[in-house]
Amino acid sequence: MRKIIVAALGAFGGTLGYGYILNAPKNTILPASFIGLAGYIVYILLGMAGFGTMSAYFFSTVFVSVVCELLARKMRTPSTIFLLGALVPLVPGYNFYLAMLALVENRGAAAAQEGMVAVQIVAAIAVGAAVTSVLFRALAEKNKKPL
Amino acid sequence: MQTDEQKLNIVGAAAQLLLENGSETYRVEETARRMAKGFGIGEINIAAFPTSVFLEAGGRAFVRRISRRGTNSRRIAMVNEISREVEQGRLSPEAAGCALEKVRKTPVFSQRTMILAYALAAASFCLLFDGDAATFAVTFAIGVLVQAIQPLFAHIQMGVLLGNFVGGWLTAVAAQMLYGVLPIYNVNAAIIGGIMPLLSGLAMTTAVRDTMYGDLISGMTRALEAMLLATAVAIGVYTGLKMAAMMGGIAL
To answer: Is A80 an 8 Å CB contact of chain B?
Structure first.
């Protein structure tokens, strides 16, 4: 439980700071931070529920993307603006770093392993976000209610 | 009333602004079409790539090279808003041109805000990787340092690449050197938190999205850029870790 609260704080603060780095519109930074928080919690819960690494990342990304798309429609602004910030806690910096560390310590196999995991996670996130946004656009075109 | 050429230039300026600030390719083409419709330009042809944009309408052309690319989602939102008003006929070409000029001049956040934001992001991310309060404080300090040197690379060629390399290097070195004096924090968490805001895993999202919309060239270009930037961070961290390891193997 304590771990979840700390992670929630981390995800919230991280997305908040990153929103400023992206020069996001001021009224979107706070909502995006809450989505980032919720997305990371979903990721942790999925992990606890026994999902594999890839599917946990994929489904939490889908969750984040859906919330971002809905909010973007409500606030009439491109969904990318929420998405860019809210997905950042899921970026696999951890595996990326472990791969570098293994390289420095001459553990080639471990480096390849961790690097591979990082690439897989990035792929899961990218595909999750892309699939959601493509689906939402297809739906919007069908309803002739663009945004 | 403005001529078709001026109208085309205004549409082009909007497309250029979107590309310069990191918008997806389909949004650029969609925005240009929408504005052309609002201005009453009959048929418009557009081809947009992350590095260049071509527009043609009634035999006139607008061609620009996109030399500076960054992410500024506020400007994307503003151009989006303008294009919608143009589409609904609420904005004349003159007014739209002025509005776009204003978007171009929209101030970015000050360096002081950026330093705080970067430090907050870095410090918060270390919490996701088993960082405690001490690690939070150390990562915050490292974040201040990393963002403080970024303006040095803003105006040189390949500046982003160099900035990412030096950022990764500085994070790794600072986190390990401080540990020699102050061995109360988690070095690994501090380094990971410090490099998280540099990693452009999100550019990869845009790359995949472009590819799925059929903008294959844009997708490939963005994927390449994302990988290049991530590699720069990786080499930076690698160099930093290696240096520390050679200088006596500070405990990891």
So the answer is: yes
Buried/exposed code over B71-104 (b: 16+ C-beta within 10 A; e: otherwise):
bbbbbbbbbbbbbbebbeeebebeebbebbeebe
- The pLDDT tens digits of the residues spanning B174-196 come to 998 888 888 888 889 999 999 99
In which domain, by residue range, is B143 found?
111-246
Determine, for residues B73 and A22 on separate chains, whether the beta-carbon distance falls below 8 Å.
yes
Alpha-carbon distance A142 to nearest alpha carbon in chain B (angstroms): 16
ipTM over 0.85: yes
Which residue segment(s) compose the domain that A126 sits in?
Answer: 2-143
For residues B50-65, average pLDDT: 92
Residues A29, A21: contact at Cβ < 8 Å?
Answer: no
The partner residue sitting opposite B71, judged by closest CB among A11, A15, A84, is A84
Paired residues of B53 in beta bridges? B48, B64
Residues B42 and B118 in one domain: no
Q: Are A64 and A35 in contact (CB under 8 A)?
A: yes
Could you say which of A19, A94, A133 has the minimum Cβ distance to residue B192?
A94
B251 lies in some domain: no
Q: Among B77, B126, B211, whose Cβ lies nearest the Cβ of A25?
A: B77
Q: Which of B80, B105, B130 is the last residue of a domain?
A: B105
Tell me the pLDDT tens digit for each residue of A41-80.
999 999 999 999 999 999 999 999 999 999 999 998 888 8
**Count: domains in chain A:** 1
pTM: 0.87
